[in-house]
């Protein structure tokens, strides 16, 4: 088998595993499902309010950022549950900090949403 072919196969398998991980996270994490729903609403609102190209770029970056942080938070939860199934204060603290990262990204994404959408909504009134 040529190295090109092997590399191609490796990439395909990588995508498959990544997709499986995302499906698992969506199925098991209600917060991720809520965030995807909010992202869909934001995209619909973006079309309705005709946001500019730059605003689309900022919105896509923000949505990607929040979803990525949520996936990392889910990963940290799984790692902690695997290595330390018993309750432990440091495990709780690690999970709290990871949850804090999600909260932080969600908070700033709301601010970005307000900056982009509020003036357009006010103009419509
Ligand atoms: N093993 C543990 N030891 C101590 N505290 C824990 C432990 N597991 C969870 N906790 C506490 O419970 C909280 C919720 O943890 P859990 O793993 O249930 O995540 P979750 O309910 O899916 O949270 P999230 O909303 O962030 O996804 C943690 O932030 C932590 O404070």
Automatic annotation (TrEMBL):
One of its GO terms (biological process) is phospholipid biosynthetic process. One of its GO terms (molecular function) is ATP binding. It comes from Aquibacillus salsiterrae. The chain crosses the membrane at residues 30-50, 56-76, 97-118. Its cofactor is Mg(2+). Keywords: ATP-binding, Cell membrane, Kinase, Lipid biosynthesis, Lipid metabolism, Magnesium, Membrane, Metal-binding, Nucleotide-binding, Phospholipid biosynthesis, Phospholipid metabolism, Transferase, Transmembrane, Transmembrane helix. ATP binds at residues 29, 77, 95-96. GO terms for cellular component: plasma membrane. Its main location: membrane. PANTHER family: DIACYLGLYCEROL KINASE. This is Diacylglycerol kinase family protein. A divalent metal cation binds at residues 29, 77. Mn(2+), Zn(2+), Cd(2+) and Co(2+) support activity to lesser extents. The active site is at 70 (proton acceptor). It is found in: Cell membrane. CDD domains: UDPK_IM_like. Belongs to the bacterial diacylglycerol kinase family. The keyword Signal does not apply. It is a multi-pass membrane protein. InterPro entries: DAGK (IPR000829), DAGK_sf (IPR036945), UDPK (IPR033717). Substrate binds at residue 70.
